[in-house]
Design the sequence.
C-alpha cells in the first residue's frame, strides 16, 4: 500500500516538511500561494492528514475499543447503539470486535486493541472466559476500562450491570403469583456470572415460596439457542408432565419453547406459563406474546461509555479515578404467555 | 498509557535491543540465561509483543476493516459471522464499524481504517451514501476493497451481491400466482440500489402480468422499521380496501404489517397475502409464519472476505488482481402468510 507522506510533498515542491505541515494546518506564516500548491498536491497524491494517528502531545487516538461475544444478539445490539451514539457526541469512533464467545479470540482482540492504542476499552466477556489474565493486562497498562453484562468480578474496573438475581426472582415470583406450582428453569452455561445469578434467583424464589427445588427441573443450554429451547420444552413435558411454568435464561430460548408448545397444541399459559429474559423485539410479535424481563440495554451502553469517558478525562488531567459499579433497574413485562387468572 | 518497549528492557538488563529482540523471538545465539531474564522482565513490565503492528517487511497488520450500516440488522449479523469465521481461519482479525446509516460517520470510519493500516476493507454503504469520494480514496490508495449488498456501481472493486430485481420479481410473481390482483409495495429509501431494484422488480412483474402499476400503491420507508410497516398497513387498507397483496422491502416491515392485521383481525392470507424479504429469524416464529425471500447472508460474508484475501494475496505477490462481481442465488420461501388455494 502506497502512503503519501509530508516528506514526499515537501520534496516534490522543494520546500521544508515544516512548511508543508504548516500549510496543511493553514498557519498564517505560510503564503497563500504555497498553501494552495501544497493542498493541490496533497489532494492529487491522495494524502490523508493523519487525524486519527496517536496525537503525540495528548497521546489520544480518539478511538474506543468494544469487545462483545456476538453482535447478532438483540441485547448487545442495543448496547452497541448506546455506546456509538454517546461516543459520536464526544468525537470518538468505536471499533467493535466480536469474540464469538471464544476466549482465545477474545485474548487476540485485547492484544489488538492495546496495540492499536485505543483510548479506552469496553467489554462483555465471552462465555468461555474463566481465565482473566488478558483483562488484567488492560488494567495493568492503565487503559481506561469498563466491563458490562458479563464481567470478571475480580478485576478492578468500572462495571455496568443489572441485578440478574433480583430480576430472575421477579420473573419466577410472577410465575408463582399466577398459580404455577412446578416450575422448570432452562439456564445458561456454567461460567457466565449472569447465568449463575439467574439460576440462583430461580432457586431462592422457589424456596422462599415453600416450593421444592428439584435439580432435575433445571436444563442447561450450551449455545443458548432457539433450538435448545425447542428440545428442552419437549424433554420437560416428556419427563415432568405436571410442569406448569418455565423460566428461560433469555427470550430466544423461551421462543423455542413456545414454538414447540404451538406445534403440539399445548395451551400457553393455561397448561404451562412461560417467561423469558431480556425483552427481545420478537417477543412482542409472536403468538402468544412473551412475558419477559426488560433490560435497559441502550442505557447500559450509554452508562458504560460515560464511565469510560470520565476515566479517560481523569487520566488526561492526572486525577485519580475510582472505578464505580452502576446497577441499572430491570422491569417485569407481563404479556399473554403468563396471563392466567386464578 | 505506559507502553513498555524493547529499549526499556534492554536498558534495565544492560544488554542490546537486538539481543532483547532475539531473546523474545527465541533465537539460538542468545543464552538461555539471557532469554529467561528477558522473558521474566517482559512479563513483569507487561510488555506486549507487537504482533499486530504493521510488519515492516510484509507491510501487513493482519487486520481487516468492516463498515456496515447497522449490526442489529438480522441480515448484516449473518454477513458479519461469515466474514469473521473465514478471517479467523486465515489469521486475520476483523474490526467492525457501524455507520448508523450516516454518510458523515461512514467517511470518518473510512479515514480511521486507512489510518489504522488495515490490510483490506469490506463495506456495505449507508442509505445516505450518494457521494462516494471517500470510497474512491480506498481504491486510489490501492487498499484491497470489496463491496457487498449496498454498493456504489461506479467504484471499480469486487462486489458480492444478490439480484435484488430478480428476487423481487419472484416474490411478486408468487403473490400473483396465489391469486392477488391488487398488490401494494412498501419500499425502502430513495438512495440504496437494492431498494430501487426491488421496486423495479415489483413494477416490472405487475406489467409482465398485465396488472396496472399504480404509484399510489407504493409506500416509502424512511427508517425501514416495524412501526412503518404497521402504519403503512393501516394506510393501505384505509385508502385501498381492495388491496389483496403486499410486498415489503424487508421482513421487519412485513412483520409490522402482520401486527396491524392481527390487531384488526384482518385474515392473512385470505384477505391480504403478505411477503417480506431477507428471511429474518422471527419470520418463522410469528403467526402467521411469513413468506419471504431467503438471502444467503453468511455465504455473502464468506464470499466477500474470500475475494478480499485473494486481492491481498495478489498485491503481496505483485500480481494484477481483476475485481470480480459475485452474484449469489436467493430462494423464495413460502409460508402461511401467502398460502392461499385458488
Sequence:
Amino acid at each position: 500500500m502506497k502512503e503519501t507522506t509530508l516528506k514526499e510533498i515537501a520534496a516534490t515542491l522543494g520546500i521544508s516538511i515544516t512548511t508543508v505541515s504548516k500549510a496543511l494546518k493553514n498557519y498564517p506564516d505560510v503564503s497563500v500561494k504555497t498553501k494552495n500548491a501544497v493542498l493541490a498536491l496533497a489532494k492529487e497524491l491522495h494524502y490523508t492528514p493523519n487525524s486519527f494517528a496517536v496525537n503525540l502531545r495528548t497521546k489520544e487516538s480518539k478511538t474506543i475499543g468494544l469487545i462483545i461475544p456476538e453482535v447478532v444478539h438483540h441485547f448487545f445490539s442495543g448496547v452497541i447503539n448506546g455506546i456509538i451514539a454517546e461516543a459520536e457526541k464526544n468525537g470518538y469512533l468505536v471499533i467493535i470486535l466480536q469474540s464469538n464467545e471464544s476466549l482465545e479470540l477474545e485474548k487476540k482482540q485485547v492484544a489488538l486493541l492495546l496495540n492499536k492504542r485505543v483510548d479506552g476499552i469496553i467489554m462483555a466477556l465471552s462465555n468461555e472466559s474463566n481465565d482473566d489474565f488478558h483483562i488484567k493486562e488492560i488494567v495493568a497498562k492503565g487503559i481506561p476500562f469498563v466491563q458490562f453484562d458479563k464481567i470478571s468480578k475480580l478485576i478492578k474496573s468500572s462495571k455496568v450491570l443489572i441485578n440478574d438475581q433480583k430480576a430472575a426472582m421477579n420473573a419466577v415470583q410472577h410465575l408463582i403469583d399466577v398459580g404455577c406450582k412446578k416450575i422448570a428453569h432452562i439456564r445458561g452455561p456454567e461460567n457466565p456470572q449472569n447465568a449463575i445469578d439467574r439460576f440462583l434467583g430461580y432457586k431462592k424464589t422457589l424456596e422462599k415460596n415453600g416450593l421444592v427445588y428439584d435439580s432435575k427441573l433445571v436444563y442447561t443450554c450450551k449455545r443458548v439457542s432457539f433450538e435448545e429451547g425447542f428440545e428442552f420444552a419437549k424433554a420437560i413435558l416428556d419427563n415432568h408432565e405436571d410442569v406448569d411454568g418455565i423460566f428461560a435464561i433469555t427470550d430466544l430460548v423461551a421462543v423455542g419453547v413456545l414454538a414447540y408448545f404451538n406445534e403440539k397444541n399445548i395451551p400457553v399459559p393455561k397448561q404451562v406459563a412461560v417467561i423469558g429474559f431480556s425483552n427481545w423485539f420478537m417477543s412482542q410479535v409472536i403468538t402468544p406474546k412473551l412475558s419477559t424481563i426488560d433490560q435497559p440495554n441502550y442505557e447500559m451502553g450509554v452508562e458504560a461509555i460515560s464511565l469510560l469517558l470520565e476515566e479517560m478525562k481523569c487520566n488526561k488531567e492526572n486525577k485519580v479515578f475510582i472505578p464505580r459499579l452502576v446497577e441499572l433497574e430491570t422491569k417485569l413485562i407481563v404479556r399473554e404467555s403468563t396471563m392466567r387468572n386464578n
Notes: Chain A touches chain B through 52 residues (CB under 8 Å).
